[in-house]
Amino acid sequence: MTTRESPRRREVLDVLRTAPSPLGVAEAAERMGLHPNTVRFHLDALVAGGLVERRTDKPSGPGRPRTVYTARPGMDRGGFRDYRLLARMLLGRWAAADPAEARAEAREAGRAWGRFLVDPLPPYEPPTPERSAAGLLALLDGLGFAPRPEGDGESGRPERIRLRHCPFLELAEEQGGLVCSLHLGLMQGALAQLGAPLTATALEPFAEPDSCVAHLADAAA
After folding, report:
1. pLDDT over 70 at 2, yes or no
2. How many helices (H) and strands (E) would you count in the chain?
């Protein structure tokens, strides 16, 4: 459970952050008006989550060592995230431009990431169409596209790849021209990085209600 999911845990963390020095369980409990066992439970959870540091101070005189807690510096990494909004903002910049130019830029961005993300083939394996297609399928599967090869093309490569899941579905429904251009460029860049004798020539968005279809062809074509 994060601090976002537990208001009480957030309150404990705020008490530590505003304290001029590290606090013990009893001190934190007194400031919050809670039972020490309740505060200790939340402190242990915050320590386990990496948000709070626990240390033992040597006593200045007779007595037992004192366990104190302090908040780790930095923002709460258990807080809310909204990467979809960020993606919408970035896509919105492209969407405001000329449609053809925006799609071309999106495709080129996809190519760059495809070259970066694909795992290279072993140096002793020539980039045959079959092996190159397998490398592309592994990349798409790892990204969450749930790819399925279809058709028997030349040299054992598939003619199409059916994408049964879109990890950016809501964005594709809003800005399909841009998102699908990114996906097409991603496949083209990956195949180019593999030195493949084939490329992705087109991507049919929602060719079927439950899938999109990418078309493959020999690179010379």
Report:
1. no
2. 8, 6
Q: Note whether 111 and 35 are within 8 A (CB).
A: no
Count of domains forming the chain: 2
Token digits of residue 77: 């990494």
Q: How far apart are CA 215 and CA 65, in angstroms?
A: 69
23 is in which domain, residue-wise?
Answer: 7-71
Q: Measured between alpha carbons, how far is residue 147 from residues 40, 173, 187, 202 in Å? A: 49, 19, 12, 15
Query: Could you tell me where the beta strands, DSSP code E, fall in the chain?
Result: 52-57, 66-71, 147-150, 160-163, 198-208, 211-218
- The single-letter DSSP state of residue 23 is B
Single-letter amino acid, residue 61:
G
**Phi, psi for 112 (deg, rounded to 5):** -60, -45
Distances (CA, A) of 33 to 13, 38, 43, 59: 15, 10, 15, 26
Residue 51 belongs to a domain with what CATH number?
Answer: 1.10.10.10
Give the chain's mean pLDDT.
Answer: 89
pLDDT tens digits for range 68-77: 999 988 766 6
- Which residue in this structure is represented by tokens 């008006």? 33
Query: Phi and psi (nearest 5°) for 6?
Result: -130, 100
For residue range 101-119, what is the model confidence (pLDDT) as tens digits? 999 999 999 999 999 999 8
> Residue 4 has what DSSP assignment?
T
